[in-house]
Amino acid sequence: MSSPDLTLYTDTAPNGVKITMALEYLGLPYKTVTVSISKLEQKEPWFLEINPNGRIPALVDNTGGKQKKLMESGAILLYLADKYDPEYKLSYPAGSDEYYEVLEWLFWQVGGLGPMQGQTLHFLHYCVSKSPEVRSYGVARYQNETRRLFTVLESRLALQKSTKSSPFLVGDHLSVADLACLGWVLADNFAGIASEDYPLLNEWQDMVSGLEGVKKGLEGYGIKKVGQDPELTKIASEYNSKWIKIQFEEQLKLGQK
């Protein structure tokens, strides 16, 4: 097989670090192009040619001279596992029980934990509405749902510990299911979720974050530290609120056309 020729388009966000963790853990060479979401570079024409949805991350694989463009973090994780993980370091053989369990938890994250926690962060820190009722309803709605989803993860880890003596979400080793969830769980305090309320989940995030490869893939992702420091939280909230407001206004303009 040709040496991998991979380019990752990303920024330091929960969905972006999923891919850097996977690439580093698998020991794959790759180039990184920073797409600054605070400057709305993800909406620029050059990036929309790579990912028409205008979101990070995106991956371009030019291995062997044949180009493949991928969007959506879950799809990228599955692609890397299928094509570049023959030793099943982050995956399980197709058709096995563990293979389908990985799919379950990966889809659970991209369809539930990510969107719900993302909305929690929006209403808690970046809401552009001047109505306190809108903000308080949004925070309560999405924060409560995020807590429910954290409880689901806590229960899963308890089951794994009791039945398989495993600290991972699926099977007996790290998988893309763990990596898909980790970036969001690390944002627990930033989302107003007390990590001490979920002891197994707290142990899991510390353990997985410290694994060789995963740790390197998380470099520059300081969401945990930000969430634990009120002053850093305030700074991050104010900074992100500015560009999110600009993006919101741009979306309103598009909707009026």
Strand arrangement, major sheet: 2-1-3-4
Shape: globular
The poorly predicted ranges are none
Q: Please report the first level of CATH classification, the CATH class of the largest domain.
A: Mainly Alpha
Task: Describe this protein's structure.
With 257 residues, the protein is an alpha+beta fold. The chain has 2 domains: 6-84, Glutaredoxin (3-Layer(aba) Sandwich); 97-230, Up-down Bundle (Glutathione S-transferase Yfyf (Class Pi), Chain A, domain 2), CATH 1.20.1050.10. 58% of the residues lie in helices and 7% in strands. The protein has helices spanning 14-25, 45-48, 73-84, 97-126, 132-164, 176-185, 199-209, 214-217, 223-228, 230-256; strands at 6-10, 30-34, 58-61, 68-71. β1, α1 and β2 form a beta-alpha-beta unit. α1 packs across α6 and α4 (97-126) runs antiparallel to α5 (132-164). The longest helix has 33 residues, at 132-164. The radius of gyration is 19 Å and the shape is globular. The model has no long low-confidence stretch (mean pLDDT 93).
Summarize the structure.
With 257 residues, the protein is an alpha+beta fold. It has helices at residues 14-25, 45-48, 73-84, 97-126, 132-164, 176-185, 199-209, 214-217, 223-228, 230-256; strands spanning 6-10, 30-34, 58-61, 68-71.
